Amino acid sequence: MATETMVQNQQLEAKNIETISGPTMDYDVSVQKMSPKVDALRILEPVRKKLASIEAERIISVVEKTIKKIEIVTLIPHLFDNLDRFNVALGLELVCAIKENNRLEGHLDFAVGKLFEEDDPEVESQSTIRKVKLKEKQQDIKILQQAFGSSVKNILRIFQGNPSACEIIQTECRARSGICADLILALMELRDFEFERLLIMPTEEKEKFEYVQKIIKQDKKNTDIIATLEAELATAIQDKENEMLKKNEILRKLKNNLLQLDLFSEDYIRQVKQDAEKQQLTYQKDSEGRIAKYQEEMSQLRTQLNNLISEHRASEVALRKRKYKIETEIENWIQKYDADLQEKQEEYQHIFKLHKEETILLFELEQKISMLEPEYSQIVEERKVKEQERQAKQQQTYLMGKAAVTIQSFWKGFKVRQLMKALKKKKKGKKKR
């Protein structure tokens, strides 16, 4: 019976494979017939490689300039950290602008930090004076933000006038943070995307749309073919289920045969139970003798246990005394630790007050320095103008001296030529005589 069922299963699987493989071959042929002659990737790619309109070129140039400016701005912290290395290449004006930018950034961070420290709902509910102070600090932060933005614009303007500095900082691209690098890559991808969109003309876009519509129609045809194949697959599955019902009927007959075997085996089981009951009586007698023996051993072990308990109680009293002594020592150490901690806390409060006073002095000194910085920059500019005037005068005197030397040499040559002509005339007159 089992061999017959296995043969029937193999025949059914072969039939299912034939029914499924037949339509799929037809589907592959139909797909090959529907495949277009033109490559889809070539049609979807833009035909042109250059922009045709001025507006498109302007859009791309705006994106490229934005990328260049962001590349410069993201390197400003690295330039400030390495001003000693880039001092000569950047120039005095650019170095001063970077320092000014870092100073404004520090003031802005300090102001924002102070604002977050005092921005507490409990403090705001105490008095309206604190609210007024918070508004003033917010206005100061806005002013600092505007000054910081103008300083960044000034740095970009100076970089535009100094192309050599731009070339030098381009080599430091690895100093950017990961977020800045991701931003620049995203902008570059945006530029490439916009460039591809601007390369496509309206007529080309219409052709591509028509081509996509053709592909959609082909896809609908393919879905219809898939639906027919699924229907054929459903019929094949139904045939397989019918075959499984037949196999289940065979299994039911086998189960009935097994039940009959169970009935024949009941007599054998009854006999085995009788033998087991006899063995159980013999085992019970043996177990009663063992239980008596074990009870004697238990009484001996209980006496040993009582002796051990009396011994361990004496040792427990000694350990308790030792524990009490150790606990008293620990309490004394804790009291000493609390006293030392109180002294350290008082010392910390004293140092904190001194630190607060020094921070106030530092802020006042920074304000004085910020007031003196414009005068310093004006003096540096005046010195620069005087140096340029001095160099111009030196160049003018050098050119005048060179011109005088050339005039003198020309005049000497002219005199020498006149003397030579006079000598030649004298020699001719003597020959005629």
TrEMBL record:
<comment type="subunit">
    <text>Component of the nexin-dynein regulatory complex (N-DRC). Interacts with CFAP52.</text>
</comment>
<keyword id="KW-0282">Flagellum</keyword>
<keyword id="KW-0969">Cilium</keyword>
<keyword id="KW-0966">Cell projection</keyword>
<protein>
    <recommendedName>
        <fullName>Dynein regulatory complex protein 10</fullName>
    </recommendedName>
</protein>
<feature type="coiled-coil region">
    <location>
        <begin position="226"/>
        <end position="257"/>
    </location>
</feature>
<dbReference type="Pfam" id="PF00612">
    <property type="entry name" value="IQ"/>
</dbReference>
<keyword id="KW-0175">Coiled coil</keyword>
<feature type="coiled-coil region">
    <location>
        <begin position="284"/>
        <end position="311"/>
    </location>
</feature>
<comment type="similarity">
    <text>Belongs to the DRC10 family.</text>
</comment>
<dbReference type="InterPro" id="IPR000048">
    <property type="entry name" value="IQ_motif_EF-hand-BS"/>
</dbReference>
<keyword id="KW-0963">Cytoplasm</keyword>
<dbReference type="InterPro" id="IPR042815">
    <property type="entry name" value="DRC10"/>
</dbReference>
<comment type="function">
    <text>Component of the nexin-dynein regulatory complex (N-DRC), a key regulator of ciliary/flagellar motility which maintains the alignment and integrity of the distal axoneme and regulates microtubule sliding in motile axonemes.</text>
</comment>
<keyword id="KW-0206">Cytoskeleton</keyword>
